[in-house]
Amino acid sequence: MTNTIIHKSESRGLADHGWLKSRHTFSFANYYNPDRMHFGALRVLNDDAVEAGQGFGKHPHDNMEIISIPIEGALEHKDSMGNTAVIKKGDIQVMSAGTGIFHSEYNKNRDCEVKFLQIWVIPNKNNVTPRYDQISLKIEDRHNKLQQILSPDPQDAGVWIHQNAWFHLGNYDKGLSADYKIKEKGNGVYLFLLSGEVRVNNQELKARDGFGIWDIENLSVMAVADAEFLLMEVPMNY
Known about the structure:
0% of the residues lie in helices and 56% in strands. The protein has two domains: 12-136, Sandwich (Jelly Rolls); 139-235, Jelly Rolls (Sandwich), CATH 2.60.120.10. It is mainly β.
């Protein structure tokens, strides 16, 4: 039997620090909801907006796969491995925190917000050597088709992580559908709608809604209006 869960945009946790406004789909920091700890191996989905010139000072992570997807503006990253980089829309950033890493993230712009998704996936192996990577993708390659941005395979499209997970982005015109086939039996898919409206499994979703579905082999996402969305396939048992 197919199982589903929906997280409406307004039901998410909110952290408002002035310089940072963050909506938490799952329990994070001061937001705790025992019914929202994770979706399978997907542990964190934060929808962040950081004011001009502000950001997160140096802080630690370990044994987590951390993915950043910029939506607007430019985000500057520095870490204890010596990496300094700026990412913007079209870029995907990944860190395998492994045995431990320190990093900071700042809004590179002085005149506008930076908006990005911060996603944590529980890894399938602990205490790996920390790793950083980023890639730039063509946004036009996700117009009316699914663009793979992440997988478990370093030789495959997108960045890779230590988990049997696959992420895809899609920008679909009204009336068109995205068909997706589950890549690994037992995995589920969590859809996060960035903009527009879609229908999936007879469920209507609006901007910033999240929808999880598992015990399926494939699914179809219909764009009720022009829509941009992120599909995250992750193990439900990890």
